[in-house]
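Help needed: design a sequence for this.
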């Protein structure tokens, strides 16, 4: 089976607890998040959720997912999902927020993809996904800066 990891990191001038609070406040995603525009459900382990994501063109696409990790003490959040045909695409989407020097935080967003779409044939998709992570991180930076002001 193919596997690949799409990853992006961003240092934010905000304490990690505030960044994590923003990431788990799903009711506000439509206000600021250009990539994950909506999540229906609660950030609780085992909870079935619907994640609506935008690739920057066309309507937002829904995915049925299950929350696997919500750990405020480690500032980690993750959910799993799979395509209708599991050998095509299964993934774990995760956020980790770590302390960084000077009261800053490091946001790490990953998508661990398994299945045919993880193969090198889909490099363009992987690059597009990373660009959407970057767009989300830029918007998150603005969001937490606005909340701190």
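Sure. Designed sequence:
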């Amino acid at each position: 089976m193919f596997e690949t990891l799409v990853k992006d990191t961003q240092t934010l001038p905000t304490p990690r607890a505030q960044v994590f609070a923003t990431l788990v406040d799903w009711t506000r995603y439509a206000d600021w998040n250009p990539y994950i525009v909506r999540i229906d459900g609660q950030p609780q382990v085992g909870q079935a959720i619907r994640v609506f994501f935008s690739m920057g063109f066309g309507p937002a696409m829904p995915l049925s997912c299950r929350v696997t990790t919500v750990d405020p003490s480690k500032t980690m959040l993750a959910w799993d999902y799979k395509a209708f045909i599991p050998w095509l695409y299964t993934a774990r989407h995760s956020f980790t927020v770590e302390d960084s020097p000077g009261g800053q935080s490091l946001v790490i967003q990953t998508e661990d993809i398994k299945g045919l779409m993880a193969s090198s044939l889909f490099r363009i998709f992987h690059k597009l996904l990373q660009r959407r992570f970057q767009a989300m991180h830029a918007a998150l930076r603005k969001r937490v800066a606005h909340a701190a002001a």
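DSSP finds three helices and seven strands in the chain.
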